[in-house]
Amino acid sequence: MNWAGLLIEIGDKLYLYARQLCHNDADAADIVQEAFLRVWRAHGRERVAEADIVPTCYAAVRYAALDHRRRTARRQARELKAGACLYDETPIFEPAIKPDEEMAGIEAAIRELPTEQREALTLKIWGELTFQQIATVTDESPNTVASRYRLALAALRRKLAKGVLVCYDLSKA
Q: Cβ-count burial of 55 within 10 angstroms (0-12 exposed, 13-18 middle, 19+ buried)?
């Protein structure tokens, strides 16, 4: 297994997934690094097919993000008790061009999706995982994942019916 090559190949996708889960650039980068190290420590000496390890990497990112959320919630509770709390409202997705009204509308529509639907959408479109692989990551059935994905697309179609979706053609999904 070429671990450096794997990280180069899927690192950006893992980062996008982590960012969707934690809403912070620096934390997302830390989460990906922590998750990749967890996977490497667990499977680094084994001969594992790349197709089998990719869902494992996404699952590790998911669990590292959940751990991060718990740590952050505890820290914020302590800070709130002490009278100081900071929350970063960094956008989930950073477009290659300056954000405009259309991108803001798309991002707002994605943010309004329930967490499970947003996760299925992110892993399917940007992570390029199959429903079976997403089911492995989220510990759900493939049918549940597919249903959440379809519901997310339907919700986005409704919310964005007046605009044109540039980043992804939902009519072909």
A: buried
